[in-house]
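Field: sequence (string)
Field: structure_tokens (string)

Example rows 1 and 2, in order.
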Amino acid sequence: MSSRKINISIIPRAHFRAYLTRSERFSCIVAHRRAGKTYACIQDLLARALTYKRPGPPTRYAYIAPTRDQAKDIVWGYLTAFCEGIPGVVANRADLSMTLPNGASIRLYSGDSYDRMRGLYFDGVVIDEPADIDHEAWAFVVRPCLSDYQGWATFIGTPKGQDAFYDIWKASANDPAWFSLVLRSSDSGIIPALELKSLRAGMPDYAYRQEYECDFTAPIPGAIYAEALDKAREEKRIGTLPIDPNALVHTVWDLGAPQQTVCWYFQIVGRYIRWLDVDDGGDETIIQRVARMRANGYLYGSHYFPHDALQTERTGRTLAMEFAAAWLKQNVEHTVKTDELRANMKFIPRCHDIWVGINRAKQLFPIMEFREPQCAGALALLGRYRTRPEKDGAKTSPEPIHDRSSHVADPIRYVAEAELAGMIAFKGASEPEWTYQRERRSRRGAAPQRVGG
């Protein structure tokens, strides 16, 4: 059987030559828009997949994008174009995978479904825009996948505030064991000066600083809780806080598809709302989530759910019923009776305007504390919860964007709405301007004014 020699010529941009010839195991690339970071990483994946040899099963590589659409629309096109001239390549568009003549494979994955990678091995991975991917994906799934063959990892992206990607970049910049690169448009020369001038004239300063000058300090437009979070950190209300053994632990839920379901744990300690932990990732069922809750060993108080927890699902059951069944099933000691559990399950009534809850949550922020590192990933998403202008006829109003950050932010709002409904009280809270009781007493029933950002 004759072997065939394949000559591959990879010509990278000069800015990425050091990356393609690196010896470091872990890398972080912060690069401006249209710098070519994705292009360079595909070049690197392909070169390593074609040349790297080791004993054992075929080598395996992954490119992880925040969503499947991003992986398909951007990365798949580059990968197929690069592999077009290589004989013996097998492309599987359904799986977004490419198998090379030497048996090595490169597959594109979605950060939304990171549990699909659980149990696999990888010789190398590229993680694109890691702040847009669940913070548990790296620690609990991807990093263990690299252990079998001491695989490498590269994180790439453009700043979006001081989030999880900022933390990765900061760590990489101070660690000689990492390859770290920052590529700003003013230094790279990739985009012509006249085009940069036109871009700068046509977009807000903060957007230009973020997208083209890799500025992590540029404010996120429309950020709802960012200022309140900055104040909390300044006042040392974010940090290594203890669990009060004398206070009950309550939960508040945002319900949706498994990957969108979020549960925050909190205590009321003196005048403060102390957020202890958050469960915001994975394809876990309600049964699995409740099992984790019971394993925490907390002394639980109330469990707060949005009103739609009482809606009947296709299974013929409500999510509230599933939660109760799972809780009682996990209750091995039978210390909680059905009636007691039902009394502890609180269903927050629908609020006529989302801004009622958001504005009250912002008023409650001065008495909120957040425990780190348990809440770190959720806090990064909470800081990115933001609005965008939406038109309703002739009127334009700020509307919160519905994405991963909104799933983390909504339970904070639900706690505020529970307070307005008289279901919970906080000693240190300022007097609310609006409550359900006041609205019932008001003949006009006027809604509070919307306030964005």
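Row 2 begins here:
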Amino acid sequence: MNLTDLNHLPADLDRATVESTVADYYAHFPYPAQIFCMTEVHDPTFGATFLNQDIGNWAHDRIKPDARVWVAGCGTNQAPITALRFPQATVLGTDLSTTSLQRSGDAAEQLGLTNLTLQRQSIFDSTREAEFDYVICTGVIHHTADPAGALLRLRRALRPGGILEMMVYNRYHRQETVAVQRAVDILAGPRGHDQRVEYAGRLLQEDGYDSTVFRFLRAIHDYEGPEGISDSTIQPIEWAYTVRSLADMAAECSLRLMLPCRNVFDEDAQADWSLDFKDSTLRKRYWELAPEDRWQLVNLLKAERSPTLWYYACHADSLPPGADPEVEIASSFLDTVFRRHETKASMVRRDASGKLAHGTRKLPYPLREPVAPFDRVLKEVGGRRTMRQVLTALDIPTDVSTANRARTALATTANPYLIATS
């Protein structure tokens, strides 16, 4: 199947029509839901520190705590989440949906945020040049008429040495959703959102068929809220990618995928973009591949169980030709000294009525201990020995595959158990 078979974009729609369609959709179905839970870490440098560790910057000096950050296509909550995560940074959130911006603004006001500016703007209308240290654009460009054009605007806004965090749909995750969306297109015809919702709802009630599409419909009926159901059944515009097609599009925009991002916004954060072959020949060959080829292999062999395409990227000219950031970061992880990281975080919850509830707990959360064998590492780390020395003392291999899994399990934003010593 060609990739374009999964592109849910009528050929006769221009950019203005697509943006109007998408803005109208998210005005009716703002995403995510109004109910939220946000975390304010008491250490104001936490966000920058662990973003740097995510990309193997153990000196914590590539992205400063007072960075300039752009959340492009911020939805209802990602801008205030980011402003809480980087309290010393200057954060801009932009979106096409006035409803989403209003909800972001309400959340920011309730949380007392002073470092966040919100603006209604298309990515395509951005004229920013080398302005931001960190750009976040997740779940956005695949809803545009020209994803590569949008990505190029993001690249231009990124400073040399800056980091882009991006996410697009994984082709293998969207086969059933696109099938349902096209079926609703046929059933509803040229009608508005209400009619499309009606037909989607009727399909969700059908239970007499046993195809993958109907199993998918039953699953979202049982487990998704209204926003998730609408996103899966009546999303009007979308594109889907493999690692290879995403890497090729990034290259067209003079960007390079650095490594997978263990995002903190959903359960897929713990999905693994690696293969740990038992066969020694396969294992050796796997780590000889270029990183995009390794991730494409995971995409192909894990298929629908491969993770979301959520990656850190950077200016292509900031990496030497042939560089393998994933291998280099795993190696530098082994040669770095770490100590246990502990702080506290305030958990802020808002229910459907808009009422806020506050609580405080330790970070990292005690109930999210790393899996074996990396749980043993926490007891041995003490700020004196390198990670290689710690793993060797515990008889844990120090090959690149194990080092990479240890890094993501112990020293990233999603799993902030260890912090590199200065």
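free_text_note (row 2): The domain at 15-172+239-324 is CATH 3.40.50.150 (Rossmann fold).
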